[in-house]
Amino acid sequence: MTANTPRPDIRPANPQFSSGPCTKPKGWSLDALQDAALGRSHRAAVGKTKLKDAIEMTRDVLGIPADYKIGIVPASDTGAVEMALWSLLGARGVDMLAWESFGAGWVTNVVKQLKLENVTEHKADYGLLPDLNKVNFNNDVVFTWNGTTSGVRVPNGDFIPADRAGLTICDATSAAFAMDLPWDKLDVTTFSWQKVLGGEAAHGMLILSPRAVERLESYTPAWPLPKIFRLTKGGKLIDGIFTGATINTPSMLAVEDYLFALNWAKQQGGLKGLIARANANTKAIADFVELHDWIDFLAHDPTTVSNTSVCLKFTDGRITDGAAFAKAVAKRLETENAALDVGAYRDAPAGLRIWCGGTVELSDIQAMLPWLEWAFQSEINTQAQAA
């Protein structure tokens, strides 16, 4: 690379690489949502049908077992995780895994809000995973499948034993629809519509294995549960939650948007097609990283690199202020309309985060990368001139 990298001629057709809400699938428009059940009760037949369709299409695309319960719940992935933590934990000890900000947030909730005493924390710095061999599955285990703010994911579910005594509670919000989740290893799984498929916010998905249902029906937490968290009544699962009778009023426009995204996913070949798209996008970045010695993945182990929230760090020794440099590069990319919202998460190490989930077109990733090289070199030159 020369000191004067030429300004690229071609911009991405869609420069949206935000990690959430994520970009819409190609071909999306408001016109596609004209069949939304607006102005109608979600409890009317038309509303119930659409909510039920959203649940069953989710099951179909993700390959969720028939005996698992799928519910639409309030407050996005956060609400779904909180429902699981407050409703299920406390029956036995808990092992908490955290290697980035969202996992750390769940640790805080369990330790400082629920104030559980028998808690074992397994933490790792950004870019690393904790030692999975040290996790005690006689306890309940809470973890994120993919660290959205670190770009580090668990490589597979092999670390989870089939004969575990406790439940596994998995925040899979930036993994579902892009990674192969082993449902037999997951007792509670959560995600939100705005991640991976680019749906609208506000709603979360809560997926329960039969083991999780058994816990709910046999265990009552010592603390009071607000109505918005209650999954049982009279010791029995409120089955309506998992057939489309939501706890509170959902946005039927958001439901229609999710249905559009699910139909689009099926057109891409379902889960296998979505994984292939995300992998191709990530490989394009990996090839770029391989050719440039000034940038690298934040993840230390290649087997743990996320194929959705790809986090990068600048490694050039000439950079004097990493945080300022990364922000300046992201700003140049935004000003040029070459890449929007690619700065690292506020709690993460300085760098970039480029969303590579299936709704992103490979051609847009390929068009963005020359701009990244141009922005890097331009900022290096600016720094040299100011020295």
Description:
With 387 residues, the chain is of the alpha/beta class. The protein has 2 domains: 237 residues, Type I PLP-dependent aspartate aminotransferase-like (Major domain) (Aspartate Aminotransferase, domain 2, 3-Layer(aba) Sandwich); 117 residues, Alpha-Beta Complex (Aspartate Aminotransferase, domain 1). It has 8 helices and 14 strands. Helix 3 links the parallel strand 2 and strand 3. Helix 1 packs parallel to helix 5 and helix 6 runs parallel beside helix 8. The longest helix is centred in the last third of the chain and has 25 residues. It is globular, with a radius of gyration of 22 Å.
H/E topology pattern: HEHEHEEEEEEEHEEHHEEHEH
Question: What is the number of beta strands?
Answer: 14
Helix content: 25-40%
Low-confidence parts, pLDDT < 50 over ≥5 residues? none
Percent of residues in β-strands: 5-15%
Summarize the structure.
By secondary structure, the protein is α/β, with parallel strands linked by helices. 34% of the residues lie in helices and 15% in strands.
